[in-house]
Structures are given as structure tokens and as C-alpha cells.
Design brief:
255 residues, mainly alpha
Length: 255
């Protein structure tokens, strides 16, 4: 079903990061303990990157398979202008979900999805105008802020103040919330970069890392992925319907 494999793999991978965190607490050597925590941090961020790459592949493959199943439907210019490999046209079974998923993975394999802007670029195409991810004109961010999964450290705004505000005041608070969200995840992604590319020595001195820091990183990554997963599950079938695909086609592609 829709996005089942990406979210299943994410939860498996983030659990691996949690297990490393638990294992680190049993290590008496402080240097080794910190390095295991860094490994857990890299794995946690990698699980987010893998989820969004796989989710993009999943939605892309379902869109093109829907087009093959109902060829009279005109796709958007963004979908029509993607450069696809010749294997698509030579394959005996061009309707294969596995084939399209591999093609989609190839489109993003040289990149990563480690920025909020990249997530918006890849996925907001599938969202209705007033429901797009991480934009101040959309309603999706309202749902997160008003949910039980709100975290002060991600948005750094007062939830009650936001809920009680109206008009321009609410828009200003929403813009600040989005700014803080981007800053929070930018720091998390940068830490992974520092661990991978300079052994966590961005300025020659080794960065400190703690169990508490990593617990918060894992929690925030999990909140972000689960939130986006729920939004995508809701919006993608509506996207296909707006394109003109009928119920038979939606069922065919598992949307």
C-alpha cells in the first residue's frame, strides 16, 4: 500500500539508532561511548534521508503507473519534464512498480533530502494549494502545532498564544515557527555532515555529544517523518483525483 515500505524501513532504521543509543550507555570508555553516540546520530539522520528518498520514489512510480493505466490523462508539466532512462521504454513490463521505483531512486541517488527546502521541492507538487508542507500559507503546519506532537524546541513559540491569535498576528507567529523548525533541523543535518566529513571536528575541536542530545534528535526526526507521512498519505490520492484519474486507477496503483 501507499508509502508502507518507506515508513516501515524508517521505523526499523530509527530503531537501530535507538539501539545504538542504549548500547552506548553500557560502554565505560568515554571516547568509545561518544563515538557510538555519533554513529547513532548519523544513522538517525540517515533514516530520515532514506525515508524521503523512498517516499519520493514511491509517489513518482505510482503517478507514472497511473498514467500508463489511464493514458488519456494529461500529467502536469513538472511530471512530464522529468528525464527518464531508456529502459522505461524498452522494458517488456513498463507498468512494473519495481521498475518505476528503481527509476525514481536513480533520480535522487546523487542527492539527499537533508533540508526542509528540499522536502518542499520534492513533495509540495502533490499537495493542494492551501495544504502544502512547511509554508506559511498552508494549513499543514497548523495541524502540527495544534497536535499532541508539538514540541517547543522545534518551533520555539507558545502553543496557546498561537492557538489564540488571529489574522496577521497568527501569520507572523507561524512564520517564526517555520523559521525555527528549519533552523532546528538544519543544525541536526549539519551535525551529521560534521560527523561524516570531519569526524565531528568542524572547528578543529571535537564536538561534545550526549545521551540527552541524541534522544531529542531521534524524537524530532521521528516526529517530522511521521507528520510528513500522514500528510502525504492524505494528499496523494487527492492529487491523483485532481489530475483526473478515476477510482479504478487509484485502486490499481494502491492509492
Amino acid at each position: 500500500m501507499l508509502l508502507d515500505t518507506p515508513i516501515c524501513h524508517f521505523h526499523e532504521d530509527i530503531n537501530r539508532a535507538q539501539n545504538l543509543l542504549i548500547h552506548a550507555q553500557q560502554i565505560s570508555n568515554d571516547v568509545l561511548k561518544d563515538d557510538v553516540l555519533r554513529a547513532a546520530c548519523m544513522l538517525a539522520v540517515g533514516s530520515l534521508d532514506a525515508f524521503f528518498c523512498d517516499a519520493y520514489a514511491d509517489l513518482l512510480s505510482r503517478t507514472y503507473r497511473a498514467k500508463i493505466h489511464q493514458p488519456e490523462i494529461e500529467l502536469t508539466s513538472k511530471m512530464k519534464n522529468l528525464k527518464l532512462p531508456a529502459i522505461i521504454f524498452l522494458e517488456k513490463n513498463p507498468n512494473s512498480g519495481w521498475l518505476w521505483r528503481n527509476v525514481a531512486n536513480d533520480l535522487v541517488e546523487k542527492d539527499n533530502v537533508l533540508s526542509i527546502n528540499k522536502i518542499k521541492t520534492l513533495f509540495n507538487h502533490y499537495f493542494r494549494k492551501d495544504h502544502k508542507l512547511f509554508v506559511d500559507t498552508g494549513t499543514s503546519i497548523d495541524r502540527w502545532i495544534n497536535s499532541n506532537n508539538y514540541r517547543q524546541r522545534i518551533f520555539r513559540i507558545d502553543k496557546k498564544l498561537y492557538k489564540d491569535s488571529v489574522g496577521k498576528t497568527k501569520n507572523v507567529i507561524k512564520q517564526e515557527a517555520l523559521k525555527h523548525l528549519e533552523e532546528r533541523f538544519s543544525k541536526i543535518f549539519q551535525r551529521r555532515h560534521d560527523c561524516i566529513h570531519n569526524c565531528d571536528r568542524p572547528k578543529y575541536t571535537l564536538n561534545r555529544i550526549s545521551k540527552t542530545y541524541l534522544e531529542k534528535v531521534i524524537e524530532d526526526i521521528t516526529l517530522l517523518v511521521n507528520f510528513c507521512y500522514d500528510e502525504l498519505k492524505n494528499e496523494f490520492p487527492l492529487y491523483l483525483k485532481q489530475c483526473g484519474f478515476n477510482k479504478s486507477t487509484l485502486n490499481f496503483v494502491g492509492a
